[in-house]
Amino acid sequence: MDILFYGALLLAQLGICGKQFAMKRCGGLAPGAFNSVCINLMRSLICLLVSLIIWLVTDGSTTTLFGHIIIIISAVGTAFNLFTWILSSRLVPLTLIESVSMIGSLVIPLILAPFLYDGDSVSPLQWIGCALIFISVFLFMSKEKEAKHKGSLALKVVIISVCALSITVASIFKKYYTYHISQRGLGTIEYFTFINFVTVLAVFLMLFAVYRKTESKRVSASVSDGSAAKVEYPYKKVWAYILIAAVSLYVAELFTSYAAQLPSAIYYPLSRGLTVVGTFLLDVIVFKDRVTVKKIVGLVVVVVAIVLVSL
């Protein structure tokens, strides 16, 4: 059965790579917070429709009140991570976001694992593997040549903290659901994914209401001839990438939930290690990022770490 969970983790990583590719394209064609909300709103709606169909086709069962609470908390974390990741990328280097997020999505869950998952422990070798993955992030760091949008230190700290906190919440509660609800027959992964996207869509609808009003005021202020202000939506520019992002997001969310049934000492480090490798290959193969000795060493460190956490 474990081999299926490992396979689910690989499929989830393919979804993450697809999501990264599509969102980077979207960000280049339609930058800004309002466009980010619009794009995330549409792909959340597509994922919701797909997850609804799959949930109904499987068994259509629901979960307990406690199960619903876990799903909603995890989904709110997912939504704010999707949103603040875009904002953070315009304030600081992406490698810094990855480093801070690593603390939330890897270190903290492993520390809490014995308390959250009935004594789910981590061996010394697996802690070493965890540390190596953390170190590898810094080996992949490179100097950013592109100027970042300026912002106050307080703004940067708040946005990056929310980004890291949200991925922490999403990661912990996703595994908490699989361990305490799904594995005990109290709710399915398909239902988790469905309600997850219901909540994500609700969050982005609220954000859309706020940013639509802000964007309307901005457009009105820029019109000098007295004509009616018209808010432009990014969909014509990026609809193809939104579809790719939606499919990738659904695949990532669904199969990550399946893979979360692995022991914490394997799931958290292995998922982060695969993300680092996947991102490296995406940068090099698709976006033609320069390969350096430092990055090659980082890749080797990740491979060693994956072997250690799998022992």
Care to describe what's here?
- The chain is mostly helical.
- Helix content is 79%, strand content 0%.
- It contains ten helices and no strands.
Question: Which percent band covers the strand fraction?
Answer: under 5%
What value does the average pLDDT take?
A: 83
Distance between the termini: 17 Å
Question: Could you tell me the number of beta strands?
Answer: 0
Q: Helix proportion of residues, in percent?
A: over 70%
Low-pLDDT residue intervals, each spanning 5 or more residues:
none
The rounded Rg comes to 20 Å
Q: How do the SSEs run, as a string of H and E?
A: HHHHHHHHHH
Main β-sheet description:
none
| Silhouette | globular
Structural class: mainly alpha
Tally of contiguous helical segments? 10
Care to give the gist of this entry?
This protein has ten helices and no strands. It is mostly helical and 311 residues long.
